[in-house]
Design goal:
Layout (H helix, E strand, L loop, with lengths): L5 E7 L9 H17 L5 H11 L9 H13 L7 E6 L7 H10 L4 E6 L7 H17 L4 E4 L5 H15 L2
Parallel strand pairs: 1-2, 1-3, 3-4
């Protein structure tokens, strides 16, 4: 076995920037709903809108969600023992998980572990979409080990929440 170069990707949900025109988002959601109902691939129009919204210029004021995830990422990175690192978003924000995986592969990653800020079961992003994307990428990059660090140990999540509550409880 060759040299192992580790990579880590933190996936967040993604948010709509406050200054993005609502008609763009409404149209994107309508096209997405039609596609899912019909079981067809993404149309060129839907892809263009998705890309336009994901690439919308952002600041901490216009997209506090992205700023928050980037702050978590900045705290996480030093704890990864030098692993290559990237952030990705499920929707409304760039880069996509596919783009981040490809970025780390281009940088030499041979083993990539994906984790998410979506801790609880029941979410379509964490339970369905991320695993589907990773399965597609495994086929596209068979020489790269792609792992998904999910589901979370709910006892650990509860302990983290308990510690947070202690900070605010007299």
């Amino acid at each position: 076995m060759g040299t192992v170069t580790r990579g880590v990707i933190l996936v967040g949900h993604g948010g709509i920037p406050k200054d993005c025109p609502s008609e763009l988002v409404t149209k994107l959601k309508r096209l997405e709903g039609q596609r899912r109902a019909a079981g067809t691939p993404m149309s060129a129009e839907e892809r263009e809108l998705d890309t336009r919204i994901r690439r919308w210029p952002r600041t901490a004021a216009t997209d506090p969600y992205q700023a928050g995830l980037e702050a978590v990422a900045a705290q996480l990175r030093p704890n990864l023992d030098g692993a290559l690192f990237a952030v990705a978003y499920n929707e409304f924000c760039a880069p996509t998980l596919k783009e981040s995986v490809e970025e780390l592969i281009q940088k030499g990653a041979t083993h990539i572990t994906v984790t998410t800020t979506m801790f609880t079961p029941g979410g379509s992003h964490s339970e369905i979409e991320i695993p589907v994307i990773l399965e597609q990428l495994r086929k596209q990059y068979p020489n790269v080990m792609l792992r998904y660090a999910w589901p979370f140990d709910l006892n650990l999540v509860a302990n983290t929440l308990a510690e947070q509550l202690k900070r605010f409880t007299p």
